[in-house]
Backbone:
């Protein structure tokens, strides 16, 4: 009994040490690379910096009970939260936010990331031990290479994906157990966890499960002559059953998350027609059938597989549009020191693992059918990373924006599969060569040597990856910015406790951190999230707030007309704002000399509009000035030409493509320009610069494309020289448009709309309430999207709502006299998802009871 207890203690100590090793190594690597919390550079980089940190700040309030979980009013015009929660925030590790205050979210991110790496280490060690019968130390050492591989280290910047990597080895072991022993529970719960924590990566895991499950079935099919083709086909049915049951168990969050994400629109939809995907999948299926044939010799399959890979490499030149990166970047992706962010896929497993994977194909004791099967899977994985049509299938038939090698982790995992199998053959190889297994001391020495070599290997990967991800990113800058932002908002709230929107022409990253309102606590137009409301985002883009199909709304310059229509009452800007429309405020402290301004013509977030406004649908062919004129005209019920075109002509065109305009600006007017965006293809940025009077604006950038103020009002008419310069290798804009703002026309329209405005008593996420008085039956427009989750009552009676601007804005019928308007929000699809999950729980309980009875 004592010996058994002692063994348990030793096993527990092994697991604890194994869990802590990658955490300790991460701390060491951060210290060496000068990364927070052991250095000056922030641990917040890329998506962590521009999205997650604000989402975490918001979710911290949800967990603390101070923020509404159901609806986010300060993300764009407003957005149901469940798509964001299901995509970004449903990891159980996020509960740790309760242990940190609002000023230490970066520390939470680091701790959460470190803990996830520790869990990946434990899960991978368990898989390698069980699947290949490795000793604990060799399995743990090899697992450390996977835990700290290039893909994981570079994707710490997108830490939701690390939850999927925790599940990956457990899912693979669960698939093995299902194929060979009929045990299904581990696979089931792994899939449920994957879907609940991040359905996007869960979708990829489902695809990989099919491929990996076929691999394990294939290996058993060839290893056991009695395992016939009929058994092979029958063996796929449990996979289908487990996958469907897992999907149903996770329906309580999966269904509302997917329903919310279907509103994310068609931006970045892949550029290939349906037949390309059909042909791609058909070819993959035929190859799978070919490699599954028993009668075809393994040598022939190996030759065919290598020929296919070579053919693919040769075809890249004429078909480069179909590939995510060049042949060179694909090849060097296997070597971590040659990795280049967003250009090179993160395929590198480490040199030790590469050598072991190569040895897998050379060791004679490994069956040839296993080698051919692994070659086939590796080929599918590498093609899935490189060939766009197949790559887009993995990404939900969408072209991903950044981190494009999202599915490269499955290629890396298969290399570790081969390496683990090769490592398991070392005892047999040694005994065949030497006749006996070496003594304990020699074995311990070999293990220490293996651990040392692997440590050096992961250190090389980390010391090349971390500086590429976290350089020139001082944490002290972000801490200072957040402190000032919160103090400014407190001062603004003390000055005006009402309901209004606030905007800034800058943010903590310059342009691309668009969700600051979620963290600081103000309503804004800007937003950047994959779980956006597509109709609202597209409409704001069309009006000049960002670029259509850029996945974000960006506020780059005060726009007096639309600012007023959307209730943007206060603006912070570095560049002086024309006082004709805005009034300077003294709000302290300032950030890098940015000044605050009040927009005195800002309307309420709800007001009466012309009944014909319901018929208004934005015309994509209009430029941003024309779009604003059309919008305000629809709201007031008559034509308003707030923006008037300026005379402009091209006066010079340089050999490098630089174009110069001469723009005639009358006295006393504010001039603006807007560039028609360029459609970007083949992974090009497409940005260009516009310069005038000593200033330069970067346009067509994914995080910035706005109507911009060209010239402030002057006492005399003048000519302004405007130059457009395109960066080498980029595309030219279709046109520049120049207009001035007719102040009288704008103010007349705003005065008409200001006659009947809503006074809000509550504007708290899923509950909006207020009063409005009308002289006749009218249409109330709220500047929030008409989400399916809203239930609207007027004076206690449920009313049927409508939409304005093509599902971008909410229209509510109100009657003559006093109207009390109340909006409550429920998550669309949640009830149906919960019902499906409860039914699935009943099915699960029945299966467990039947299994228990069978064992008895």
Residues:
């Amino acid at each position: 009994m004592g010996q058994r207890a002692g063994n348990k203690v030793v096993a527990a100590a092994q697991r604890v040490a194994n869990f802590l090793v990658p955490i300790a190594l991460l701390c060491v690597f951060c210290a060496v690379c000068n990364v927070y919390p052991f250095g000056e550079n922030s641990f917040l980089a890329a998506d962590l910096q521009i999205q997650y940190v604000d989402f975490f700040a918001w979710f911290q309030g949800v967990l603390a009970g101070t923020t509404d979980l159901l609806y986010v009013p300060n993300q764009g015009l407003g957005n149901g939260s469940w798509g964001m929660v299901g995509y970004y925030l449903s990891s159980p590790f996020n509960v740790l936010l309760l242990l940190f205050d609002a000023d230490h979210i970066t520390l939470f991110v680091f701790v959460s990331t470190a803990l996830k790496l520790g869990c990946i280490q434990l899960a991978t060690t368990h898989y390698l031990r069980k699947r290949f019968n490795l000793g604990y130390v060799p399995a743990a050492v090899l697992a450390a290479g996977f835990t700290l591989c290039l893909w994981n280290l570079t994707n710490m910047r997108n830490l939701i994906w690390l939850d999927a990597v925790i599940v990956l080895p457990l899912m693979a072991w669960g698939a093995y157990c299902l194929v060979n022993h009929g045990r299904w529970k581990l696979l089931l719960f792994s899939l449920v966890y994957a879907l609940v924590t991040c359905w996007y990566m869960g979708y990829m895991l489902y695809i990989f499960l099919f491929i990996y499950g076929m691999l394990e079935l294939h290996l058993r099919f060839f290893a056991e002559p009695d395992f016939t083709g009929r058994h092979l086909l029958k063996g796929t049915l449990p996979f289908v059953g487990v996958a469907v049951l897992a999907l149903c168990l996770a329906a309580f969050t999966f269904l509302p998350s997917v329903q919310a994400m279907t509103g994310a629109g068609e931006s970045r939809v892949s550029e290939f027609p349906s037949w390309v995907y059909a042909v791609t999948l058909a070819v993959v299926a035929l190859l799978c059938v070919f490699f599954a044939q028993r009668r075809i010799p393994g040598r022939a399959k190996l030759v065919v597989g290598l020929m296919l890979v070579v053919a693919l490499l040769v075809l890249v030149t004429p078909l480069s549009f179909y590939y995510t990166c060049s042949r060179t970047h694909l090849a060097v992706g296997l070597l971590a020191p040659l990795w280049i962010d967003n250009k090179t896929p993160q395929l590198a497993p480490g040199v030790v693992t590469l050598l072991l994977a190569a040895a897998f194909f050379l060791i004679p004791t490994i069956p040839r059918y296993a080698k051919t099967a692994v070659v086939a899977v590796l080929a599918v994985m590498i093609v899935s990373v490189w060939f766009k049509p197949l790559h887009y299938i993995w990404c939900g038939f969408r072209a991903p924006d950044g981190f494009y090698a999202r599915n490269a982790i499955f290629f890396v995992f298969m290399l570790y599969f081969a390496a683990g199998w090769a490592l398991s053959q070392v005892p047999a190889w040694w005994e065949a060569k030497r006749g006996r297994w070496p003594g304990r001391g020699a074995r311990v020495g070999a293990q220490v040597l293996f651990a040392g070599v692997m440590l050096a290997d992961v250190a090389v990967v980390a010391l090349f990856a971390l500086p590429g991800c976290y350089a020139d990113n001082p944490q002290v800058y972000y801490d200072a910015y957040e402190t000032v932002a919160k103090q400014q908002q407190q001062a603004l709230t003390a000055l005006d406790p009402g309901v209004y929107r606030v905007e800034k022409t800058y943010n903590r990253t310059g342009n691309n951190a668009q969700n600051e309102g979620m963290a600081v606590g103000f309503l804004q137009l800007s937003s950047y999230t994959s779980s956006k409301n597509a109709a609202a985002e597209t409409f704001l883009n069309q009006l000049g707030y960002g670029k259509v199909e850029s996945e974000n709304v960006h506020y780059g310059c005060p726009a007096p007309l639309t600012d007023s229509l959307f209730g943007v009452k206060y603006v912070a800007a570095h560049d002086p704002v024309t006082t004709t429309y805005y009034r300077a405020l003294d709000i302290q402290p300032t950030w890098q000399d940015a000044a605050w301004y009040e927009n005195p013509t800002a309307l309420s977030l709800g007001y009466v509009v012309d009944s014909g406004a319901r018929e208004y649908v934005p015309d994509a062919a209009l430029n941003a000035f024309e779009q604003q004129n059309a919008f305000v005209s629809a709201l007031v019920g008559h034509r308003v030409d707030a923006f008037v075109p300026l005379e402009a002509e091209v006066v010079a065109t340089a050999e490098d493509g630089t174009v110069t305009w001469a723009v005639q600006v009358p006295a006393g007017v504010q001039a603006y320009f807007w560039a028609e965006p360029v459609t970007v293809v083949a992974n090009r940025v497409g940005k260009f610069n516009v310069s005038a009077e000593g200033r330069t604006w970067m346009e067509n950038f994914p995080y910035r494309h706005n109507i911009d103020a060209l010239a402030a009002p002057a006492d005399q008419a003048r000519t302004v020289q405007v130059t457009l310069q395109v960066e080498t290798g980029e595309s030219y804009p279709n046109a520049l448009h120049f207009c001035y703002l007719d102040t009288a026309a704008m103010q007349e329209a705003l005065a008409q709309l200001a006659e009947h405005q809503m006074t809000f008593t509550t504007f708290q996420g899923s509950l909006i309430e207020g009063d409005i008085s009308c002289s006749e039956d009218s249409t109330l427009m709220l500047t929030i999207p008409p989400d399916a989750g809203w239930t609207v009552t007027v004076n206690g009676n449920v009313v049927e709502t409508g939409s304005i601007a093509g599902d971008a804005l909410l229209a509510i019928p109100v009657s003559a006299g006093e109207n009390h308007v109340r909006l409550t929000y429920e998550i669309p699809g949640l009830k149906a998802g919960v019902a499906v999950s409860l039914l699935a729980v009943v099915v699960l309980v029945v299966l467990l009871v039947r299994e228990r009875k069978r064992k008895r």
The longest helix spans residues 2-32. The first strand starts at residue 71 and ends at 72. Confidence is low (pLDDT under 50) at residues 264-269.
